[in-house]
Design a protein that fits this description.
By secondary structure, the chain is mainly α. The chain has helices at about 1-30, 45-50, 50-75, 75-80, 85-110, 115-140, 145-160, 160-175, 180-210. The protein has one domain. It is about 85% helix and about 0% strand. The chain is globular. The two termini are about 25 Å apart.
Length: about 210
């Protein structure tokens, strides 16, 4: 009975995650082909004319979705144990996207984030830590340190999930308190990823206690 409940829960969480990824895909599709006057970019017209910002934005918008999909597969016991080649390929895809594309471009976008220095610091720190955790995860797997690799992948993917969580927090905050838009932006610039990272540390601690 307990095993059946866990299976139902797993499939339920998978369905929810797939739905959020679908919503993120819809957001990405708004900017194809290179539309600079739609959605978020309508409030960034002062920056979109700058080549470096335009390139950074579209690189981030077009590649971050791959990190969400590839990163999720890294935590599937079925793929990891029975399809190790798929695990390695998706892992490399995730790391390439984070380290070379979505991570660096996210920092550039963060420098020009709405909400002033507080938001800019929050988003830039998010990008820096995302790259750092991913880089350490890569080094640990090269050293065959599986447990440390797993821990840093949890941290890295927790930050990748900020693409979803910051939008979810935004809807909750607006629905409950209806603050000014810039105040909301300042809050989610931190809440969108700090909470994820705390949850990741709790999961890592729980796994270590089970293994000890």
């Amino acid at each position: 009975m307990i095993l059946k409940a866990k299976t139902v829960l797993s499939y339920g969480l998978l369905a929810i995650y797939a739905y959020f990824c679908y919503l993120m895909l819809l957001i990405t599709l708004q900017y194809i082909p290179f539309d600079t006057d739609v959605a978020f970019l309508r409030i960034k017209q002062d920056y979109i004319s700058r080549d470096y910002y335009r390139w950074a934005f579209f690189i981030h918008a077009y590649t971050a979705i791959f990190a969400l999909v590839a990163g999720f597969t890294q935590f599937s016991p079925l793929i990891r144990n029975q399809l190790p080649r798929i695990h390695r390929i998706s892992g490399w895809l995730y790391l390439i996207v984070v380290l070379l594309l979505a991570g660096p471009s996210g920092i550039i976008i963060g420098i020009h984030a709405n909400g002033g220095w507080s938001s800019q610091l929050g988003f830039c720190l998010l990008g820096i830590l995302w790259i750092y955790f991913s880089w350490i995860a890569l080094q640990k797997i090269k050293q065959r340190n599986i447990s440390a690799h797993r821990d840093f992948m949890y941290r890295s993917f927790a930050l990748a999930l900020s693409a979803i969580s910051l939008r979810a927090w935004k809807y909750v905050i607006v629905a409950l308190w209806q603050p000014r838009p810039m105040d909301t932006y300042r809050i989610v610039a931190w809440l969108g990823w700090v909470g994820n990272l705390i949850l990741a540390e709790i999961i890592i601690s729980y796994i270590k206690k089970r293994q000890s």
